[in-house]
Each structure stands twice: as structure tokens, then as C-alpha cells.
Design brief:
It is built from 8 helices and no strands. With 207 residues, the protein is mostly helical.
Length: 207
């Protein structure tokens, strides 16, 4: 038994298997991370805002958690596998490989995978980080002059202001274009807070 474990240990630590094992571990980490993130989010949003029986809510939570975990795991598998193929083909890793692998994984998993609420939330989350990253990049690359070394402190106030200004304007003029879960949350915060007919509906419950 010890010899078998020693052999497995040697394979695990052998550099020539590193990329392949990295794909396997990426698949595992994607599934676990997706489960953790989506489960907590789904529990809160389902029990706060969704109607139905307890069993129905549990089914919704399990379905969303499974989809998020599966999609992240699949994306990691496609992404890292593509990197491996490109590295093997070209003889070395190149920066452009990450973009190509990301395009392929994004298209297969989140593009062709369907416009589900889970996929939309993941892609929009990534999009918001990309936009903020691009804003910081303009300062880092000196497209926009920075007055100090802290890129984030220059970009963040403008980014936050523009985001909130635009979303509140769209919520007022064309709320149907917003993501359903966000619109539901905003309805609760901004519209339901304008309606009450007693102390009970003012303080404890919506009208």
C-alpha cells in the first residue's frame, strides 16, 4: 500500500503531469466555488422574494446551485484544456491564449448554454468587473492622467456614480430592461416603500 501511495505521490508532483492535473483540480474548484456562492445567494433571494411552498423553494435553490456549479466547472475545464492544447501546439504559453480560451469557454457555457437567470447573473457580474478593470486600465496605461499612484481611488467614485445614475434612470423610465431579480429588489426598496395604509404596513409589512 505504501508503495502505491508513493507512486501516486510521485505522479502528482511530476511537472509533466502538472497541466493535466491542473485541469482536474480546476474542474473540482469550479464546482465547489459555484456551489458555495450560488447556494448562499439562492437561499436568501428565494426565501425573501419567491412565493411557493417550502419544498418548491428548496427545489429552486438546489436547481440554481447545481447549474452554477456545473457551469463554472465546465467553463474551467474548457478554459484550462484550451490553454493546454494551445501551449502544446505553440510550444509555449502566450498571453493571447487566455483570451482565446476565455472566448471559447464563455461561448460554449454561458452563450450557447442558454440565457438562464443564473447565466445572466454570472456574465453580468463578470461584465461589471471587466468595465471597472478597463476604467482602471486607462489610468494605469496613462490614457487618463493619474494624480497619484492609487488607480482605484481615481476611478472608483466616477464609476460608482455613473453606474447608480444610469440604473436609477433606467428603473424610472424603462424598468423592463433591467434584470428581473434586480428589478424585483428595486421594486421592493424604492416602490413598495411609497405605499402603506396603516402603521402595520408602514413598519412591519408591505401593503
Amino acid at each position: 500500500m505504501d508503495s502505491i501511495m508513493d507512486s501516486i505521490h510521485q505522479v502528482i508532483l511530476d511537472p509533466k503531469y502538472h497541466d493535466i492535473l491542473g485541469i482536474v483540480k480546476g474542474l473540482r474548484n469550479g464546482a465547489i466555488y459555484g456551489s458555495k456562492v450560488r447556494f448562499a445567494h439562492a437561499v436568501v433571494m428565494t426565501f425573501l422574494f419567491r412565493n411557493g411552498s417550502f419544498a418548491d423553494k428548496v427545489r429552486v435553490i438546489i436547481k440554481a446551485t447545481r447549474e452554477h456549479a456545473r457551469n463554472l466547472a465546465t467553463f474551467v475545464f474548457i478554459y484550462k484544456s484550451t490553454l493546454y492544447v494551445l501551449k502544446t501546439t505553440n510550444g509555449k504559453a502566450q498571453n493571447i491564449d487566455t483570451f482565446i480560451a476565455g472566448l471559447l469557454g464563455g461561448y460554449v457555457v454561458f452563450g450557447r448554454g442558454g440565457k438562464s437567470s443564473v447565466n445572466q447573473q454570472i456574465v453580468l457580474y463578470v461584465f461589471s468587473r471587466v468595465v471597472l478593470g478597463l476604467a482602471k486600465l486607462t489610468v494605469k496605461k496613462k490614457v487618463i492622467p493619474s494624480l497619484n499612484d492609487d488607480v482605484g481611488s481615481k476611478v472608483w467614485p466616477v464609476f460608482a456614480a455613473v453606474c447608480w445614475g444610469l440604473v436609477m434612470y433606467m428603473f424610472r423610465t424603462d424598468p423592463d430592461v433591467l434584470q428581473p431579480s434586480m428589478k424585483t429588489s428595486m421594486d421592493y426598496i424604492y416602490l413598495d416603500s411609497n405605499r402603506w395604509d396603516s402603521l402595520r404596513t408602514l413598519v412591519w409589512h408591505n401593503e
